Amino acid sequence: MDYIAYARTSYFKVKDEELLNKIADSYQAEVVHRDDRAALLFNYGGIPGWNDPEQWEDHPLWTDEYDDTFFFRLLATTMEDGEGAFLTEVGTEGMRYFTGIVVAITSKGNVEWRSLDDFVSELADQFSEFKFGPRDY
To answer: What is the pLDDT of residue 37?
Structure first.
């Protein structure tokens, strides 16, 4: 069974629409607008960033070292000062398991993420006197 994921950002104010469109094209995303804000919808599924297109190798943020935050920091450069966005992914492999991740990105290039498993672990710790069964099959 294949893993199927859907991902999108929340809406944010954009200072560099041309760069945002270039990012969208290279990561197979669609730019959508609401009022004076834009968001990215990832049509192929899943959060990008672990498979960066080679066209970004000349970008000042690029490094030859593995960097799983490059995409997020690149996206941050398109945001107006003081803006932030959440990039959310939900996915499943049939009914075997469900997963999710939320990445907070700020215009200053801050990147922080939490997974659904992080939340589940926190809840399991909170209710440690109870026994929970496995979550996958």
So the answer is: 98
Secondary structure letter of residue 14 according to DSSP: B
Return d(Cα 35, Cα 110) in angstroms, integer.
Answer: 25
Amino acid occupying residue 43: N
Size of the chain in residues = 137
Kindly state the tokens that stand for 128.
Answer: 């440690």
What does the longest C-alpha to C-alpha distance in the chain come to? 54
Q: What's the pLDDT at 1? A: 74
Among the residues of the chain, which ranges form H helices?
A: 17-26, 70-76, 116-126
Amino acid at 24: A
- What does the alpha-carbon distance between residue 87 and residue 96 come to, in Å, rounded to a whole number? 24
Kindly write down the DSSP assignment for every residue of 44-61, as one continuous string: T-S--SSS--GGGGGSTT
CB 121 within 8 A of CB 40: no
SS3 for 10? coil
Q: Which residues of the chain have pLDDT under 50?
A: none
Predicted local distance difference test score (pLDDT) of residue 44: 65
Decide if 16 contacts 78 (C-beta within 8 A): yes
